[in-house]
Design a protein that fits this description.
The protein has 3 helices and 14 strands. The chain is of the alpha+beta class. The chain has 2 domains: 32-91, Roll (duf1285 like fold), CATH 3.10.540.10; 96-183, duf1285 protein (duf1285 protein fold, Roll). A 6-stranded mixed sheet has the order 3-2-1-6-5-4. It has a 6-stranded mixed sheet with strand order 9-8-7-12-11-10. Strand 10 and strand 11 form a beta hairpin. The protein is elongated, with a radius of gyration of 17 Å. Residues 27-94, 95-184 form the DUF1285 domain. InterPro entries: DUF1285, DUF1285_beta_roll_sf, DUF1285_C, DUF1285_N. Pfam families: DUF1285_C, DUF1285_N. This is DUF1285 domain-containing protein.
C-alpha cells in the first residue's frame, strides 16, 4: 500500500494543516501491551536518521511507517509496538525532528505548524507544547508530538522561531500559538 505524498506546507493555510492532522489516524499503540520480545536493532540518531543494524534506513516510507508504531514507555525508554510484539529502539535525543515551520497570524492570534521528519504535521498549542531546555550544548527546543514523544526543533526552524519572537512585543522572548504562550528564552 503506497503512502500518500507529503503536502507542501507553504501552499496550505493553517486551517488546511489542522484538517490534515485531524484526518491522520494512528494505530492505538497506547492500548497494545504484548510481551517484550527483544531489541529491534534500530536506532534514531540525534539528527532524526533511523538506522537498522548500523545502516541508515533509506526508504522514507519505511521510516514513516515505523514512526506510527513508536511509543515511549513510562521509564522513558522507547519501543516499537504492535498487537503481538514489543521491541526496544534506541533514541539518542528525540525520536522526531521538526524540519519545517508555517506561521499564520501575529501575537496572541498566531498559530505555528511544524512538519516533522516523519511527515507528521503538529500545530503547537495546549496539547502540543513547545519548550526550550538548557543543555551543556546550549538551548535545545522541543515540541510535544504525542504520548510523551517529542520532536527536536531543527536549528534552522529554531532560528525562524526566534526571528518571529524577536519581532513580538512582550516581557519574555516567546511566541503564542493556538492560545498558548511558549517562552523561547530557556528561562524557567
Amino acid at each position: 500500500m503506497p503512502m500518500e505524498p507529503l503536502p507542501d506546507l507553504s501552499t496550505l493555510s493553517l486551517a488546511d494543516i489542522a484538517r490534515l492532522a485531524a484526518e491522520k489516524r494512528l494505530p492505538p499503540v497506547e492500548k497494545w501491551n504484548p510481551d517484550h520480545c527483544g531489541d529491534s536493532e534500530m536506532r534514531i540518531a540525534r539528527d532524526g536518521t533511523w538506522y537498522h543494524q548500523g545502516s541508515p534506513i533509506g526508504r522514507e516510507t519505511m521510516v514513516r511507517l515505523f514512526s506510527t508504531i513508536l511509543r515511549r514507555e513510562p521509564d522513558g525508554s522507547h519501543v516499537l509496538v504492535t498487537p503481538v510484539e514489543k521491541l526496544d529502539i534506541e533514541v539518542e535525543d528525540a525520536p522526531f525532528v521538526a524540519v519545517e515551520l508555517k506561521s499564520e497570524g501575529e501575537g496572541r492570534t498566531r498559530s505555528l505548524a511544524f512538519r516533522l521528519n516523519s511527515g507528521d504535521i503538529v500545530t503547537a498549542g495546549p496539547d502540543h507544547g513547545l519548550t526550550v531546555r538548557e543543555t551543556p550544548d546550549g538551548p535545545h527546543p522541543y515540541l510535544h508530538v504525542r504520548g510523551g514523544l517529542e520532536a527536536l526543533v531543527g536549528r534552522s526552524v529554531y532560528y525562524e522561531l526566534m526571528n518571529l519572537a524577536m519581532g513580538e512585543e512582550g516581557e519574555r522572548v516567546g511566541l503564542w500559538s493556538e492560545g498558548a504562550f511558549f517562552p523561547l528564552d530557556g528561562a524557567a
